[in-house]
Design a protein that fits this description.
By secondary structure, the protein is mainly alpha-helical. The chain is built from ten helices and no strands. The protein starts with 5 loop residues before the first helix and ends with a helix. Protoporphyrin IX containing FE binds next to α6, α7 and α8. Keywords: Membrane, Transmembrane, Transmembrane helix.
Length: about 250
């Protein structure tokens, strides 16, 4: 049984990558297969990139971020979602970045700097103080897009290339593992599954306590109000009854 240092999973990117890769079974052979598929994949990169942006354009919610200034590209303030078209500068810019991403995937050595890049790709979609733009793409869309891109790549690999079936299957498998690793490098910036530190636990407990106290005091005030209203109603009914029945 291997020992895993939980804290390092959250503080040491290389350690996290090695843990996830080891767990998934993403090996040097998988990396080599991805490299060898380079020619086939590079040929379909433009079509994949276009399909990615057509997909994002299909939904208003996934088009919103492109009306905002991005890291490395100012979008005129007051630009609305409807102003952004497939021909806009911002989309051309984003398509270039996505093209680089896919080309790097089939060309880069799996060294610390590439893993850092993959991690940054996940991180840049959040509203991290490490960037100037305030864009925050919610995880639901990132996960959906990873599924979509992965399906497109798999479809391509299943028909393209002059491979025997074993190599083809192994290549599809290698890409599939890669996309799960990339997904981890998105998810880590959205999910909160790290064990809390002592300070965070105390802050959370205090917050909970404050909420409970506020709720108790609201219930007490409501109870007092109802009691007061009940008493007032009783007095009023008593007074009416006295007028009707007891007065001569
Ligand atoms: C498969 C999933 C995705 C991949 C691989 C991906 C890839 C990338 C890359 C490579 C960058 C540039 C990183 C850099 O500058 O170094 C980027 C930035 C960006 N992506 Fe994605 N993306 C994905 C999903 C999405 C989705 C679903 C949206 C929108 C709904 C989106 C919107 C953006 C935006 C707005 C930026 C610029 C962020 C900023 O400047 O603050 N991406 N993406």
């Amino acid at each position: 049984m291997k020992t895993v240092d939980r804290e390092k999973l959250y503080t040491d990117l290389q350690y996290r990558f090695e843990y996830i890769s080891g767990f998934i079974g993403f090996t040097k052979e998988d990396q080599d297969l991805i490299h060898k598929s380079g020619e086939v994949v590079a040929g379909v990169v433009p079509a994949i990139v276009d399909a990615v942006y057509d997909k994002l354009f299909n939904y208003d919610i996934t088009w919103v971020p492109f009306a905002q200034s991005q890291e490395g590209l100012q979008v005129e303030s007051g630009t609305s979602v409807k102003d952004v078209t497939m021909g806009s500068e911002v989309i051309a810019f984003r398509k270039t970045m996505m093209t680089k991403y896919l080309k790097k995937l089939v060309r880069s050595e799996w060294n610390a700097s590439y893993i850092k890049y993959l991690d940054w790709v996940g991180h840049i979609h959040t509203s991290t103080p490490l960037k100037q733009s305030t864009i925050n793409v919610e995880y639901i869309h990132c996960n959906a897009m990873l599924g979509y891109v992965s399906a497109m790549v798999v479809e391509t690999l299943q028909t393209a290339g002059d491979w025997d079936q074993t190599t083809r299957d192994a290549t599809v498998n290698a890409f599939n593992k890669f996309f799960w690793i990339q997904n981890d490098l998105f998810a880590r910036y959205y999910v909160k599954d790290r064990l809390l530190t002592e300070d965070e636990r105390t802050a959370l407990a205090q917050e909970e306590q404050a909420k409970k106290t506020a709720m108790r005091s609201a219930i007490r005030s409501e109870f007092l109000l109802i009691t007061a209203l009940g008493a007032a109603a009783g007095i009023a009914i008593g007074a009416i009854a006295y007028r009707v029945f007891a007065r001569p």
